[in-house]
Amino acid sequence: MYWTLELASYLADAPWPATKDELIDYAIRTGAPLEVVENLQDIEDDEDEIYDSILEIWPDYPTSDDYLWNEDEY
Fold first, then answer.
1. Model's pTM, two decimal places?
2. Which of 3, 6, 21, 63 has a Cα-to-Cα distance from 28 of 20 to 30 A?
3. DSSP 18-65
């Protein structure tokens, strides 16, 4: 399983919180690349697991806190 910023961006607007199956369904319905679906399928199966954000799937996903600009200036 590997994630890139481009692949993870397909899940940015997913209906969080969601289960693994819901995320796979969302990826298929939105036309995400096959790699996204395969990455989601590679997540360990735990039917009761609910993911609250992309950070629980890919902890290295960049957030606004990762950028060093002052939002008050813009």
1. 0.79
2. 63
3. EEHHHHHHHHHHTT--HHHHHHHHTSPP-TT-EE-SGGGT-TT---GG
Q: Could you tell me if 22 and 49 are in contact, meaning their C-beta atoms sit under 8 angstroms apart?
A: no
d(CA 35, CA 30): 13
Handedness of CA 34, 40, 58, 23 (dihedral sign): positive
Sign of CA dihedral 62, 65, 69, 71: positive
Length of the chain: 74
Query: Measuring CA to CA, how many Å separate 8 from each of 13, 22, 31, 48, 70?
Result: 10, 15, 13, 22, 25
Cα–Cα distance, 1 to 44 (Å, whole number)? 11
Domain extents in the chain: 14-57
